[in-house]
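Table 4 source record.
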Amino acid sequence: MSDHKRQSASEAVSRNPATGEIIESFPFHTSTEILELLAGATTAQRQWRSAPIASRVEIYQRFGEILLRRQDMIAATITAEMGKLLREAHAEVQKCADTVQWFAAHGPALLSDEPAAVEGDDDVYVAYLPIGIVLGIMPWNFPLWQAIRACIPIMLSGNGFILKPAPNTMRCAYHLQDIWNEAGLPNGVFTVLNTGNDGIAGVLEDPRIAAVTLTGSVGAGAAVASKAGSLIKKSLLELGGSDPFIVLADADIDKAVEAAIPARFTNSGQICLNAKRFILEQPIAETFTTKFVAAASKLKAGDPTDPTSALGPIARSDLRDGIQDQVTRSVASGATLLLGGKVADGPGYFYEPTVLGDVEPGMAAFDEEIFGPVAALTIARDAKHAVELANCSEYGLSSNLWTSDLERGRQIARDIEAGGVFINGYTASNPRIPVGGVKKSGYGRELSHFGIREFTNPQAVWAKRL
């Protein structure tokens, strides 16, 4: 039985994946505490929605400043709880602070009443109004960023936010709550909920919860969306991804390989919007493969606080076991093991950087999302076949396309079934552009004007002049 499965059913456990040692335990909220939490959130949200947006912005600005002042401590917590390289954890905190400041600067304009041009001289506009309290069910791989990406636009529009974090990153969640309190956010507008998965349905059923946003697995998303739908409550899902990284024959191979390494191995490959299937046009497949395997072989897993480490551990032992199973099944189905493919020796939950060649549809490495440092290489006959392979997936989160002909790339991008296409680069996120997927990668959008209005009531107001 894995360490993860041995934890108590009545508490969340934070365990250092680099050593396997327990850091801290957090008893689940009792049913009485959850009712008190919901009552407090309801009162706070009613006050918050009436607060001038300028006062909300001031709190956001203070939040961003405090976040940066505590960057070292928070980054260290991220690394300890889920194994992210310390330098990547620092970058995560900085990204969160930048996003807070961007919404503080641009959010008021995005939420302002929008005039509608209609015939006559009536005063017609759309007001973007809050809908209430949103439950946010967030994952462990970006314990700060995922929560910030969700709550910042949702709360700025006047909603309350209840964060249900992953059980192995509870301390990161409580850091956020502490910073909101210090920034002057009214108590209860942002609240951390500590409960097991079996307690989520009851919270969602509470009439004080208006909507839910979830980032996680397809199974979790289906369960939450089904429950929300039965309750006629809005949901937003950002689920799994098996993003294609298409390299066409006219691409700059050296630059494509240079980008492919971080595109796959950042955060030890534990990213939803992460290149996982490398689809190579036949004429350049051998060259790309040789250079990519050589580059990946130089990646060394080690202590995530050591600046020389290129990969940290997998977040949990059971997740690492799942990666090994997917690699084993892929090789048994005909994939070629070009690099790695084994659990790393020593303590902690490390897995070797792995490259699989000759991967085809029907294999685990092609059909399933591998949430770890494993790259699957597939050869396409031509550009049309490459797009067909890219779309031959139940997922549609993000994608990458490499070609020297940008206009051709833009045309091909329109045929790729994904929420984002990054030409001659790899997937990134920015508060100015929306994030989300299609197919089983989910629905709805976060960030940008789409995200800040996602959980609002676009109220049409038609005032006739008498």
